[in-house]
């Protein structure tokens, strides 16, 4: 949270600033208070919001746009507001892109691999999606780098004892069964073999 932005709906400077704030992605970092409708209560000036609630306008706010920065407790007005928000947008951009000015293609938080994304499927039962269940946060995918050494074990109910027990002879038998299943007319002769004469139609 950066602070509170006081603006006027009819002020062209405020409208330009609001457009920049939206483009820079700072909207979630600010609270917005329009000062078009105001009332005085003694020494205080209150802004009347659309929902009828009232918000105190600090005495230091004498023009709009104005920014009350809650980090340093200062009020900035005029061109200083744009400069302050531009600096904040630049800081956020550098933090998000690693000072490269472009987003990173892959996360480097977990050593180059991404832990995947949790998905919610229509087939999930309601208990799975509740807070007391897994909350629909089960990992459905995992991305691994080329140098990651990941072993996939076979569970007991899949018929294995933990590790896969495929041997070279199993692989050769699989290749032989596959070759037997292929249609004979789609197989090409080995290189250098004599071709049969073409069929007459």
Describe the overall structure:
The protein has 201 residues and is an alpha+beta fold. Among the domains are: 3-97, 3-Layer(aba) Sandwich (Glutaredoxin); 156-181, no CATH class. Helix content is 24%, strand content 15%. It has helices at residues 12-23, 79-97, 126-129, 168-181, and strands spanning 3-7, 30-34, 38-41, 44-48, 54-57, 66-69, 74-77. β3 and β4 (44-48) form a beta hairpin. The termini are far apart.
Tell me the total number of β-strands. Answer: 7
Strand content: 15-25%
In whole angstroms, the N-to-C terminal distance is 82 Å
Structure classification: alpha+beta
What count of helical segments does DSSP give?
Answer: 4
In the CATH classification, which architecture of one domain applies?
Answer: 3-Layer(aba) Sandwich
H and E string: EHEEEEEEHHH
In CATH, what is the class of one domain?
Answer: Alpha Beta
Global geometry: rod-shaped
Mean pLDDT: 76
Strand order of the largest sheet: 2-1-6-7
- For the CA atoms, what is the radius of gyration? 33 Å
Poorly predicted regions: 108-117, 132-136
Biggest β-sheet description: 4 strands, mixed
Helix content: 10-25%
- CATH topology call of one domain: Glutaredoxin
């Amino acid at each position: 949270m950066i602070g509170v932005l006081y603006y006027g709906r009819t002020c062209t400077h405020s409208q330009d600033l609001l457009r920049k704030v939206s483009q820079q992605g700072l909207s979630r970092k600010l609270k917005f208070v329009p000062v078009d409708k105001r009332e005085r209560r003694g020494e205080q000036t209150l802004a009347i919001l659309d929902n009828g609630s009232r918000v105190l306008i600090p005495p230091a706010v004498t023009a709009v746009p104005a920014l009350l920065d809650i980090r340093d407790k200062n009020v900035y007005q005029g061109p200083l507001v744009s400069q302050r928000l531009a600096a904040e947008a630049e800081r956020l951009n550098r933090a998000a892109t690693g000072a490269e000015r472009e987003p990173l293609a892959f996360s480097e938080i977990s050593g180059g691999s991404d832990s995947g994304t949790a998905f919610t499927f229509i087939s999930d039962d309601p208990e799975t999606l509740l807070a007391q269940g897994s909350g629909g946060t089960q990992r459905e995918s995992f991305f691994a780098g080329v140098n990651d050494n990941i072993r996939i074990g076979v569970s007991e109910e899949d018929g294995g004892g933990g590790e896969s027990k495929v041997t070279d002879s199993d692989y050769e038998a699989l290749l032989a069964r596959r070759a037997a299943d292929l249609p004979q007319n789609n197989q090409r002769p080995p290189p250098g073999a004599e071709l049969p004469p073409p069929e007459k139609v």
